[in-house]
Design a protein that fits this description.
406 residues; alpha/beta; TIM Barrel; 5-stranded parallel β-sheet; 3-stranded parallel β-sheet; 10 strands; 48% helix; globular; binds alpha-D-psicofuranose; binds manganese (II) ion
């Protein structure tokens, strides 16, 4: 890092009234969970591509995830998906993670891959299928107890392809019934994060299609149920930062699955398509971080930042590095927003002034700041370069092809 570049940056930001010590402390505290399934083979609906060196089991997925954390200091926990990451003994997986400097993060039940779930899981008209799905949710609560995970993250592929195929209101009641049973099994420390998705794999209706449905369900279940915003799960044009602000105000924003999408689906690297959206999401979060209401501050402090990407064509570890670094960059930029400046302009009804006070910050180059904190943390200044020049990517090729799918 050039000292001159940082000195210039420091002078520029101090002149704007930004406290760089505070910015640095918050940047160092940023934690982004990576998904175990992002290290495995994955593909489109048409083909799963096999790559050489892909982890063969959950233990190896954690080893790859440790690379991402060691080089960036950003990703100390890894979400698991059950049964993709099913193991005999979760305490072994937990100590393996801990030996690597990681912890096991959110537990994700999988209610979309068994034959019986073709017409729905917890919303299936067959009571036996609903029972099986609910039992799987309960199994994941037990796994979370063993792994020490706070969050259980729920996404349902449930929906219908044709009008008349399912009774929408009955399905709504069945969903609530299953989640109530799961909610009652959770320990007081656990949280249920409810994810929604506008469509796919069902194309006519999806049982939890948007944030309002997820929020309504969370409210009915109780305070340990919150909404999870997957940035790829909205119709084009949706204002995600508005949803974020609204949920924070309701103290129900549980977490994020970060990724990007251009049209549909959700597996592109976060920040690769619309970095400004990511910046604006952090703008909303940070403007609530200083709220006078302690409950709002507490909601913000407990937001789980998670990546949810299954890379189809990219190399797995570099793609995950790129993802967490993109999040860090936009978070760093958003930390430079002078909220007083924005709010004062808004109060004067200075529309362009307020917009300028937000947008101008997005245009700052935060490289000197990121280099400075990495240096202070003893991390490589350029984690991607450090990974590509290490031997890890070559060493794992001995695993061969045909590793774990997702
Ligand atoms: C569904 O598209 C989703 O976003 C859910 O979070 C799943 O658990 C994950 O992707 C993996 O398929
Ligand atoms: Mn997701």
């Amino acid at each position: 890092m050039s000292d001159r570049a940082y000195a210039f940056f420091e002078e520029q930001q101090q002149a704007r009234g930004i406290n760089l010590d505070e910015v640095k402390a918050r940047l160092k505290a940023l934690k982004i969970e990576t998904p175990s399934w992002g290290y495995g083979d994955s593909g489109t609906r048409f083909k799963v591509f096999q790559k050489e060196g892909v982890p063969r089991n959950p233990f190896e997925k954690f080893e790859d995830a440790a690379q991402v954390h060691n080089l960036t200091g950003l990703a100390p926990s890894v979400a698991i998906h059950i049964p993709w990451d099913k193991v005999e003994d979760y305490s072994k997986l937990r100590s393996h993670a801990e030996n690597l400097g990681l912890s096991i993060g959110a537990v994700n039940p999988n209610l979309f891959q068994d034959e019986e779930y073709m017409l729905g899981s917890v919303t299936n008209s067959d009571a036996a299928v609903r029972r099986k799905a609910t039992d799987h949710l309960l199994e994941c609560v037990d796994i979370a107890k063993e792994t020490g995970s706070r969050d259980i993250s729920l996404w349902f592929a449930d929906g219908t392809n044709y009008p008349g195929q399912g009774h929408i209101r009955k399905r709504k009641a069945w969903m609530q019934e299953a989640l109530t049973e799961m909610y009652n099994a959770m320990t007081p420390q656990m949280r249920m994060l409810i994810e929604y998705k506008c469509f796919e794999p069902a194309f006519y209706h999806t049982d939890l299609a948007d944030w309002g449905m997820a929020y309504n369900l969370a409210q009915k279940l109780g305070p340990q149920a919150e909404v999870l915003v997957d940035t790829g799960h909205h119709l084009p044009g949706a204002n995600i930062e508005h949803i974020v602000a609204y949920l924070i105000d309701e103290k129900r924003l549980g977490g994020f699955h970060f990724n990007s999408r251009k049209y549909a689906d959700d597996d592109l690297i976060v920040g690769s398509v619309n970095p400004y959206e990511l910046f604006l999401i952090f703008y909303q979060i940070l403007s609530a971080a200083g709220d006078s209401d302690a409950a709002i501050r507490s909601n913000v402090e407990n937001i789980a930042y998670m990546i949810d990407q299954s890379h189809n064509i990219e190399q797995k570890i570099p793609a995950m590095l790129r993802s967490v670094l993109n999040v860090q960059t936009q978070f760093a930029k958003a930390l430079l927003i002078n909220h007083d400046e924005v709010n004062e302009a808004a109060e004067r009804n200075d529309v362009l002034g307020a917009e300028d006070a937000v947008r101008r910050v997005f245009e700052f180059d935060v490289t000197p700041l990121l280099h400075a904190i990495r240096e202070e943390q003893g991390l490589p200044l350029d984690p991607m370069k450090a990974y590509l020049s290490s031997s890890y990517g070559k060493d794992i090729l001995v695993r061969g092809k045909g590793g774990a799918s997702w």
